[in-house]
Write a structure and sequence with these properties.
- There is one protein chain.
- The chain has 92 residues and is mostly helical.
- Strands 1-3-2 form a 3-stranded antiparallel sheet.
- Strand 2 and strand 3 form a beta hairpin.
- Helix 2 crosses helix 3 and helix 2 packs across helix 4.
- The protein is elongated.
C-alpha cells in the first residue's frame, strides 16, 4: 500500500517507488530544470548554489533527498552530469 494515498500500488513492489513518489520526483526534476534554464546559458553550476536556488524558488519545502532525486532523474535523462566530488553540476 502507498502510505501517502492508502491505495494499493503494485509499483512499490516492482520499482520500490509508489506512483505518487515517482510523480513527485518527475515534477521536482522539471522544476529544477526550470531553475537551471532561468540562470541563462551556463555550462556548470555548484551543487550547493543550485540547491539553494531551487529551495528559494519553490513554494513547497525542498529536502536534500528530493533535490538529489530530481538531479538523478535529470542525469538519467542525460540533461546533467556531476563529478565524483559532487561539487559541480554540468549542464548537457
Amino acid at each position: 500500500m502507498d502510505p501517502k494515498t492508502g491505495m494499493i500500488d503494485i509499483n512499490i513492489l516492482t520499482t520500490g517507488l509508489s506512483i505518487s513518489d515517482r510523480k513527485r520526483r518527475i515534477e521536482a526534476s522539471k522544476a529544477l530544470m526550470d531553475v537551471i534554464k532561468s540562470k541563462g546559458k551556463i555550462t556548470t553550476i555548484g551543487y550547493h548554489t543550485l540547491f539553494e536556488a531551487f529551495k528559494d524558488t519553490s513554494d513547497t519545502p525542498i529536502s536534500r533527498s528530493l533535490f538529489d532525486d530530481a538531479l538523478k532523474v535529470l542525469m538519467d535523462d542525460d540533461k546533467l552530469s556531476m563529478g565524483d566530488d559532487r561539487k559541480m553540476i554540468r549542464i548537457c
